[in-house]
């Protein structure tokens, strides 16, 4: 009986494979390193929580667009709501028009609660959380959504 | 050694001796400089004419001789050249614009105004840059159309067709990233829509309810926008992509595209090209005017099925001057056309970007409006799904149709192919017009079933239906005719018909809120 002394991988192949492997690993690492450049640890952006004034300053039935923010504040008989003005289709800013909101870019239409009635928007306009700031003003937090129909009573 | 070199002219032996030699060398300087630059004699012999091409860095991408078939304007229509020269003009005017353009949200808009009103010739340079972009897009598309209908993607040219598709994508990406830069209403909202299309894979992950675990859209957004809101970060990214990354890639791939043309044996031509052309006219320095000093074999003969192999360069002409006359003519016509356009019409500049109020309607430039029309049915399908399918389908055409048909002649010179193209055009137009009319008149799924799940709209909307109908049509044609080439003709013609009609509808028949209007004068005013 003869025992084969040939290793399963020849030495030369082994060295070649190692070289190829380390080459590919180096390429992958440097490409990955370069790509990671696109994802900084923190993104510069304005705070997503802001104050919109005292509840008493709002008349029932009033709509406001806080300065520089893409949001509608409604004071309805049921309470306060903050509905996003950013179309869920591709990010245009909707206008308030019958039946509720209309997007100028590709014609999505929403009812007054932000539900999609027509057009390509895939989801309803989100409602943002409203709370009371320590100084008594109302404040909106765009990083938190609440389910449609959640009213804030001041 | 003793014989004077006929190419370099008479050899000037330097006289011996220090200062005298220096003076003599100085006197000979213009001559010696010229000779070290241009290392062949005047291009009056065949050999010098080839060397004028092969020894010049900029010209040597051409072959030394060119077949007379390739020089027929009715074959190429000069469209590839127009695309190339538009690109060159874009590079030159673009570098000039960069001297004044400032890629920050605070300064970009004013710097464009400055270029327009304050910088000498700035208006013309900017206009030319903008209109050359339009011309490049148009000529690239038309060039693809000519390559397709002359079946020039066959006979070893498969890969060059794929490269061409890549160049088309690069061209569109260049023009998209370019018109964002002025930071006006047009650019800003195009950027909002474009970056959201890039993230619209989220529409699918949302519909499947898996966004919380797997959100590739977020990566796209972070990479392109550099944050959640469009601002300086995004503008700088797009500026770098537009001014450096994409031009470099495009230049490299154009180089490869041209190199492949040579390796594929020059432009395509039908087997009977020589018979059709007949003998070359007297005055065009046809073949060898003198005994060649060395063999031309390697320069004029190429690998492949090209008819030139083994038959000598009979119906070829020296590229110098024939091809260069043709190229210079196309260059001059392109430049004059763009100059006139730039003088007569100013590139658009809307109001400064206002992130609170989009334009109504917010329309992209014409070459994206077909996509915008599709996007108005589904963001993901219109912006990513259907374009990907269409591009893949186009890129694979040469691999799915491997029939040996006549290349290098419009419709392969076959009445049948022309008829199939016409019938397919009629079918393609009817299908797209029918679907659009239906969707405009009766709405689509969500109008009838307000609570329908989004995934149904993604999968089944006018865009996806149209794509499916076109694919079925081309299968039907291939089946009925028993020819993959004719199937490809069916698909490509339908694709063109769809592109054309969607673009026209979006350009002229869509008004505020993307509502259908018969004419812009009917838009409501307010
Ligand atoms: C930046 C864009 C492009 C440039 C600058 C360009 C340039 C050229 C030029 C100058 C030629 C020589 C013949 C002619 O002028 O027609 C050519 C040939 C060719 N192009 Fe393009 N092209 C571009 C895009 C495309 C596209 C989009 C396709 C198709 C998908 C394509 C496929 C081809 C093929 C297959 C040939 C060889 C044609 C033959 O042998 O007859 N190219 N191109
Ligand atoms: S962005 Fe609102 S409909 Fe497209």
Description of the structure:
The complex is a heterodimer of chains A (154) and B (526). Chain A is of the alpha+beta class and 154 residues long. Chain A has one helix at 11-36; strands at residues 49-54, 63-64, 71-76, 79-84, 95-97, 100-102, 109-110, 116-118, 127-132, 137-146. Chain A has two domains: 7-39; 49-146, Rieske [2Fe-2S] iron-sulphur domain (Rieske Iron-sulfur Protein), CATH 2.102.10.10. Helices cover 17% and strands 31% of the residues of chain A. In chain A, a hairpin with a 6-residue loop joins strand 2 and strand 3 (71-76). Chain B is mainly α and 526 residues long. Chain B has two domains: 42-359, Cytochrome Bc1 Complex, Chain C (Up-down Bundle), CATH 1.20.810; 371-521, no CATH class. Classes of the chains: A alpha+beta (154), B mainly alpha (526). Chains A and B meet through strand 8 of A and helix 8, helix 9, helix 10, helix 16 and helix 19 of B. The complex binds protoporphyrin IX containing FE and FE2/S2 (inorganic) cluster. Protoporphyrin IX containing FE binds next to helix 4, helix 6, helix 7 and helix 11 of chain B.
CATH names the topology of the largest domain in chain B as Cytochrome Bc1 Complex, Chain C
Structural class of chain A: alpha+beta
Unreliable segments of 5+ consecutive residues of chain B: 1-10, 287-312
The share of residues in helices of chain B is 55-70%
Evaluate the radius of gyration of chain B: 28 Å
The main sheet of chain B orders its strands as 1-2
* CATH-defined superfamily of the largest domain in chain B: Cytochrome Bc1 Complex, Chain C
Strand content of chain A: 25-35%
Helix count of chain A equals 1
Distance between the termini of chain B: 88 Å
How would the global form of chain B be characterised?
globular
Overall average pLDDT of chain B: 87
């Amino acid at each position: 009986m003869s025992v084969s002394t040939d290793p399963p991988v020849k030495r030369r192949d082994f060295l070649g494979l190692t070289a190829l492997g380390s080459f590919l690993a180096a390429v992958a690492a440097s490409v990955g390193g370069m790509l990671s450049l696109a994802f900084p640890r923190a993104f510069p952006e304005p705070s997503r929580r802001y104050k919109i004034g005292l509840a008493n300053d709002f008349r029932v039935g009033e709509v406001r667009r806080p300065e520089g923010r893409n949001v509608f504040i409604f004071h309805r008989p049921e309470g306060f709501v903050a509905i996003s003005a950013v179309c869920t289709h591709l990010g245009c800013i909707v206008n308030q028009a019958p039946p509720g909101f209309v997007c100028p870019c590709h014609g999505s239409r929403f009812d007054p609660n932000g539900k999609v009635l027509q057009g390509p928007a895939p989801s309803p306009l989100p409602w943002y959380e409203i709370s009371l700031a320590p100084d008594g003003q109302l404040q909106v937090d765009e990083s938190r959504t609440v389910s449609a129909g959640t009213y804030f009573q001041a | 050694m003793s014989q004077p070199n006929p190419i370099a002219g008479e050899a000037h032996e330097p006289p011996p001796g220090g200062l005298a030699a220096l003076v003599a060398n100085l006197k000979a300087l213009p001559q010696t400089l010229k000779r070290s630059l241009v290392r062949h004699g005047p291009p009056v012999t065949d050999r010098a004419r080839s060397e004028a091409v092969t020894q010049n860095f900029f010209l040597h991408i051409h072959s030394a001789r060119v077949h007379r078939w390739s020089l027929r304007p009715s074959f190429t229509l000069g469209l590839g050249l127009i695309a190339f020269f538009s690109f060159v003009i874009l590079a030159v005017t673009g570098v000039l614009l960069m001297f004044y353009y400032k890629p920050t949200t605070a300064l970009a808009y004013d710097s464009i105004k400055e270029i327009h009103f304050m910088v000498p010739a700035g208006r013309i340079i900017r206009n030319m840059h903008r209109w050359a972009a339009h011309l490049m897009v148009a000529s690239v598309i038309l060039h693809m159309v000519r390559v397709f209908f002359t079946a020039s993607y066959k006979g070893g040219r498969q890969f060059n067709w794929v490269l061409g598709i890549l160049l088309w994508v690069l061209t569109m990406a260049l023009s998209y990233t370019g018109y964002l830069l002025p930071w006006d209403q047009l650019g800003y909202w195009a950027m909002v829509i474009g970056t959201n299309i890039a993230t619209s894979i989220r529409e699918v992950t949302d519909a499947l309810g898996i966004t919380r675990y797997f959100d590739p859209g977020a990566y796209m957004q972070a990479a392109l926008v550099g944050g959640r809101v469009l601002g300086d970060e995004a503008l700088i990214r797009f500026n770098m992509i537009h001014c450096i990354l994409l031009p470099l890639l495009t230049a490299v791939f154009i180089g490869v595209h041209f190199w492949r043309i040579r390796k594929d044996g020059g432009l395509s031509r039908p087997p009977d090209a020589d018979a059709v052309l007949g003998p070359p006219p007297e005055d065009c320095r046809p073949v060898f005017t003198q005994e060649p000093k060395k063999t031309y074999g390697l320069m004029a003969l190429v690998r492949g099925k090209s008819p030139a192999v083994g038959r000598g360069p009979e119906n070829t002409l020296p590229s110098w001057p024939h091809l260069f006359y043709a190229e210079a003519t196309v260059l001059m016509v392109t430049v004059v056309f763009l100059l006139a356009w730039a003088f007569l019409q100013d590139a658009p500049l809307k109001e400064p970007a206002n992130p609170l109020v989009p334009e109504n309607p917010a329309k992209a430039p014409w070459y994206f409006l077909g996509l915008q029309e599709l996007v108005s049915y589904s963001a993901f399908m219109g912006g990513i799904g259907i374009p990907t399918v269409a591009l893949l389908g186009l890129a694979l055409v040469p691999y799915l149709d491997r029939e040996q048909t006549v290349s290098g002649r419009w419709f392969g010179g076959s009445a049948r192919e022309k008829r199939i193209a016409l019938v397919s055009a009629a079918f393609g137009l009817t299908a797209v017009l029918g679907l659009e009319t239906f969707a405009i008149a009766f709405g689509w799924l969500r109008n009838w079933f307000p609570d329908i799940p989004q995934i149904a709209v993604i999968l089944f909307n006018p865009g996806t239906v149209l794509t499916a109908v076109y694919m079925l049509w081309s299968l039907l044609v291939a089946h009925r005719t028993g020819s993959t080439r004719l199937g490809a003709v069916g698909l490509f013609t339908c694709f063109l018909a769809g592109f054309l009609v969607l673009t026209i509808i979006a350009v002229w028949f869509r008004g505020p809120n993307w509502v259908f209007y018969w004419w812009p004068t009917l838009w409501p005013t307010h």
